[in-house]
Structures are given as structure tokens and as C-alpha cells.
Design brief:
Elements lengths: L9 E2 H9 L3 H10 L5 E2 L8 E3 L1 H11 L11 E8 L30 E8 L16 H16 L2 H17 L4 H17 L4 H18 L4 H14 L3 H14 L4 H13 L3 H14 L4 H13 L3 H14 L4 H14 L2 H15 L2 H33 L2 H11 L2 H13 L21 H7 L13
Antiparallel strand pairs: 1-3, 2-3, 4-5
Helix pairs in contact: 1-2, 2-5, 4-5, 5-6, 6-7, 6-8, 7-8, 8-9, 8-10, 10-11, 10-12, 11-12, 12-13, 13-14, 14-15, 15-16, 16-17, 17-18
Length: 456
Amino acid sequence: MADSPPNTALKGWKSIADYFGRDQSTVMRWAAQRGLPVRRMPGAGRSSIYALPNELAAWLQSERPGGALATPADITPVATDIAAPPAPVGTAGGGRRRRLAYAGAGAVAVAGAVVAAIVISMRAPVASPSRPAFADPAVERDYLAATYDLDLRSPASLNRAVGEFGAVIARDPGAAPAYAALGETYLMLREYTAFPSDTAYRAAAAAARAAVALDPGLLAAHRVLAFVAFWGNLDLATARAEFARARAIAPRDAQTWHWYATALSANGEAAAALDAIGEARRLEPQSTPIAADYGLIAYLAGRRDEGLAALHAVAAGSPSHMSSHRYLADLALARGDGATYLAEAAIACRLKGDAREAAGLASDRVAFQRGGEAGLLEEIASRMAATGQHFDRARIAALQGRRDFALAELRAAAAAHETGIAGLPGEVMLRSLAGDPMFDAMRRRASLATGADGTV
């Protein structure tokens, strides 16, 4: 710890960090979550932060007997490599969380920047019903800048957004919108990068719960909780309640209807999903992510030509929208159209910037040239035997006609609580298994829309 005159104020985060011999992000988190005594000078701006060394020393002693301060137990840093794409991803939004077969589960990019993902298992912040969303206009400006990075949906911008929202929270621990936005950023990380899904869901839920503790009526927080409940926890009752709460708070919020529609489709409720995505389109007709998910939902509902036309229109009009190419690749593989799969998967892989996926696709091309569709599926299955999850292996096995193996892998996926199981009722690659008693029982879910039991 650096020596400092006991009555001399340490001005700015850098000076405080130097006092502890830690980086600035660490002491910001301590201020936000562990009560590090940081004060503000009159006026706004980053330079208004200061601390008194005697107070810091007293805090350090109280935190850990003997003064030995460990990393805070309620915040776990997780380092994950995230590849920056060669071209901007653009403004792709949240939607159906489908993994392409070529990616495999657990794929980790080997290029790009490292993001420190703060998994927040925080003590609930103290709510102040009368406070504005942001106590300091300068903090609000930083929050708005972070939301811009979130909306860009590129690996690099999402990496920045995590740190930016964390810094906002450190400076204003009572800013509920920042917690909710951080939760959404984690959900986007698992969609647009190689960030681990399980970690993302835990972090998103923790951040959203913190937001609700501060502002029980915050729409974005309930929307994140609904998403995590459905996709991450397969908790239909909680997902239903949180989606209903979000729609009650803001009945005309397009993103809520969008996320609700994708969950309905994954749960096999095709008609309700079409109604919900239709409402999202009416509320935000210019949205590229909504248009792409409309195409996928229409296809899965049996309106194949309409769905494909919508997806191709998005891919042509917004070529940097990754999800539209991902969906087209997935659907092509399910139809046995290996050439289209390889072409669309290559575009999605390039936008994601994942070197490991690129290597897998190179092997897929060779296998397809040598053995056609059967050779392509065999290559993917071989790679997934080592790297994929049970659910991913079941999808490819079903396309190969290996019915018994596919069913065994689904049982293993359910036993392991793999998140892919959330979308089993609407999964297009598994439809050949319909009629098997075990498969039909696994698809039998309560309705997300009504709560009624039955086969969906």
C-alpha cells in the first residue's frame, strides 16, 4: 500500500487505486458493493471523487481482520476471449438464442480483446423511491454512451459496455437503469461472442435483481428476468410472470413483445408467437432484429416461404446483421441444403470473428465436397463428439437419422440441465423424432402464454 499523509485527500480513482495497489475498476467495484468510503467534491465530473486515507485505512481494517483485503466475495471476475469482427455487426438486437451446428458448444475465440465479466451476486442496493434515475448528469451521460455500445451489438462494443456500465454503477450505486442495462449486455455477450451462456445468465439475473431492488417497476429489469427464467432456467412460471409484469408496465414496448415472441416460438406455441412478433413489428417496423425473428418464427410456424423471404430480405438489406445469416444457415442444414448452410454460416462466422468456428467451417467444406450432405453431417458430428453439448449432438444425430442416439443425447442433455432444452418444443432439427413417447413427453410443456398444461 502506498504511503500517504493521513490528512491529505486522494483525488480521483487513480489516486485511490494507487493507495491500495489495485486497478481503478477494482476500487470502483469496492465503492459500489463494499462501502469503500469515497466522497464527492462540490460540482460534477470525474475529478470530483476523493477519499481520506485515514478513512480508507479504517475501512480496510473493518473489511478483513488484520487488514488483509481479499477480492470481494460477492464479485467474481471471469476472463473470456472475445473476437472483434473484421466488419461492424451493426445494430442487431436480442432475439432467438439459437446456436449453429458449426459453432459447437463452448467454442472460445482465440483472437480479440479480453473482457472482465463481473458476475454480480450483490447485496441488494438500498432503494430510494424519490431519487432520480441518475443523481449526477455526468453519470447519466456516461450511461447513455454505454447504451450506444450495447446497441451496436459487436464483440468489441459489448466488451466496452460491460466496463462502462460497471463504471457507472461504481459512481452511482443507486442507478437502477445501469444495472438492468448491464444485465442485457451479458445476454448479448452470449449471443454475439463466445462468452459462456451459464455465466451470462447468472450475471444478467444478478444485475436485473439489483435493478428491481432499486426500482421495482423498471421495465428493462423484468424483461431480463423473464429472458433468463425461460432460456437459462427453463422456469416457465417465472418467465410467464415476468413477461406479464413487463407488458403491464409498458404494453407498447416492442422489445418486450419481441423477446416474448421468441420464447413462445421456442416453447412450441406457434400461433401465440406469430401474434406477439406481429405486435412487435407494428410497434417498431424499422427494427432489423424484429424483422429477422419474424422470418424465423413464421418459418417454424409452417409458413416456410414467407419466413425464408423475410430472412433473405433482412440479409440483403442489412448484410451485417449476424442473426439473419445464422438462422438461414440453421434452417438450410435442417432442410439438407449443405451449400446454403456453408455460405450463410461463413458470413455469420466472419461477422462474429471466431477463428475456431472458421476452422470448423473449413473442415465442413472439405467434407461436403467429398461426401455431400452425409459427409457434411458426419464431419459436424465428429467435431461435436469432442466439443459439443448433448443437445447439439442430438440435433445432428436426428438429421442423420440416428434416432436412438439422438434420444439418448436428449436424455443426457435434460439430466445435465443444458440450456438448449429450453427450445426443444420448437426445435426444427429434432422434428423427425416426433412420435417417440419419450420425445413427445419432453416436448410437453405448460403454455407460456396461458399456463395451461398440454402438448405444445
